[in-house]
């Protein structure tokens, strides 16, 4: 540990990922050796030394085949473009995730259905009305922000079109986002009808997680529909992070000769995004207390469902989830289950 045998090798001799030893990153000498290696590579390959840090990161996580790919590019403009592409990859996260799951040896002692479930049919009428009115009041007071997850790929839909913005075959010919928008308009009317208020427009924070491929198309739908009656300043579009796809050896897979294969990080990226962009701080300043997170794929979803919000607020749980009972346990829909006493979503 801590001794880098690559130092006295030429670039051609270190092109195999298996030649990279385990380095002790608690020692300063390791970083000095990485710097020397990156200097050697940039000099031999005609790469600007401003990318020494990038080369060091690639070497440190053993993704040397990317440097080999770079070596094969003769055109300087294309080489610079590929370097910029490589510079956008979070190698450390990819490496950490790979080794985490490689070393994970969890024994599934007990798998059971989720507990602490409240069935809607068991809620008494008086309690139902109380939850509903409480939820409407929370919306009126701008205590709940809506998060719409729309950053994933079309895994269960036609890959050639954006599932959230196109005609999906309904008689109304509405897109998924148009359906969600109209539901929000109905919600606005409910707030007016059921609560005495002097405000002239009911609006609240809406955050939409999108990706680099569907960004403009989704934003266009909202703009063409005048943001469904909401203030444009209250609709925030957030771009989901991308991570490269790796093989079973942990190597990043190339999509083309000039581009790594990348996919959106997944729904969990919303947590990192709202914290890294200081969205949470801004919401707290505006006195928001809750986030209602919904998926764009769910046509039955009720965005900011007053009944659900009132129930969640009354029970004071950190996290609440609303779901439907499965009729067929063999279908492909997500399931809430307990594994070793912890709640998971089975995919």
Please bin the fraction of helical residues: 25-40%
Along the chain, the helix and strand elements come as HHHHHEHEHEHEEEEEHHEHEE
Using the coordinates shown, work out and report the CATH topology of the largest domain.
Spore Coat Polysaccharide Biosynthesis Protein SpsA, Chain A
> What is the CATH class designation of the largest domain?
Alpha Beta
- Strand proportion: 5-15%
Uncertain runs = 1-21
Q: Give me the secondary-structure category.
A: alpha/beta
Largest sheet: 4 strands, parallel
- N-to-C CA distance: 39 Å
Rg value: 25 Å
Total number of domains:
2
The CATH superfamily label of the largest domain reads Spore Coat Polysaccharide Biosynthesis Protein SpsA, Chain A
Mean pLDDT reading: 80
Q: Tell me the total number of β-strands.
A: 11
Architecture per CATH nomenclature, i.e. the level-2 architecture of the largest domain:
Alpha-Beta Complex
- In spatial order, strands of the major sheet run 4-3-2-9
Which outline best applies? Answer: elongated
- How many distinct helices? 11
InterPro entries: Nucleotide-diphossugar_trans, UDP-sugar_pyrophosphorylase, UDPGP_fam
Catalytic activity: N-acetyl-alpha-D-glucosamine 1-phosphate + UTP + H(+) = UDP-N-acetyl-alpha-D-glucosamine + diphosphate
GO biological process, one term: UDP-N-acetylglucosamine biosynthetic process
EC number: 2.7.7.23
């Amino acid at each position: 540990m801590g001794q880098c045998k690559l130092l006295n090798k030429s670039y051609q001799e270190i092109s195999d990922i298996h030649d990279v030893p385990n380095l002790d990153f608690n020692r300063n000498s390791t970083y000095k050796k990485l710097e020397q290696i990156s200097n050697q590579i940039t000099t031999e390959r005609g790469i600007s030394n401003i990318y020494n840090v990038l080369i060091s990161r690639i070497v440190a996580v053993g993704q040397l085949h990317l440097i080999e790919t770079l070596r094969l590019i003769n055109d300087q403009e294309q080489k610079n473009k590929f370097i910029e592409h490589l510079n956008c990859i979070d190698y450390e996260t990819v490496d950490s995730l790979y080794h985490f799951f490689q070393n994970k040896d969890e024994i599934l002692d007990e798998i059971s259905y989720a507990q602490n479930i409240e069935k809607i049919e068991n809620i008494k009428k008086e309690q139902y009305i109380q939850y509903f009115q409480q939820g409407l009041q929370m919306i009126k007071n701008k205590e709940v922000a809506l998060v719409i997850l729309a950053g994933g790929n079309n895994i269960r839909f036609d890959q050639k079109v954006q599932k959230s913005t196109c005609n999906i075959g309904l008689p109304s010919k509405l897109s998924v986002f148009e359906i969600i928008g109209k539901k929000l308009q109905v919600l606005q009317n409910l707030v007016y009808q059921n609560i005495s208020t002097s405000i002239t427009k009911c609006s609240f924070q809406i955050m939409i997680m999108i990706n680099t491929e569907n960004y403009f198309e989704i934003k266009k739908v909202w703009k063409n529909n005048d943001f469904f009656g909401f203030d444009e300043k209250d609709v925030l579009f957030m771009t989901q992070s991308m991570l490269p796809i790796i093989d079973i050896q942990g190597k990043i897979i190339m999509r083309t000769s000039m581009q790594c294969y990348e996919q959106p990080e997944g729904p969990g990226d919303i947590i990192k995004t709202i914290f890294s962009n200081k969205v949470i701080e801004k919401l707290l300043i505006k006195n928001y207390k809750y986030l209602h997170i919904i998926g764009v794929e769910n046509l039955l979803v009720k965005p900011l469902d007053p009944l659900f919000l009132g129930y969640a607020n009354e029970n004071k749980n950190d996290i609440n989830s609303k779901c439907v009972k499965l009729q067929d346990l063999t279908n492909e829909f997500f399931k809430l289950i307990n594994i070793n006493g912890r709640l998971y979503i089975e995919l």
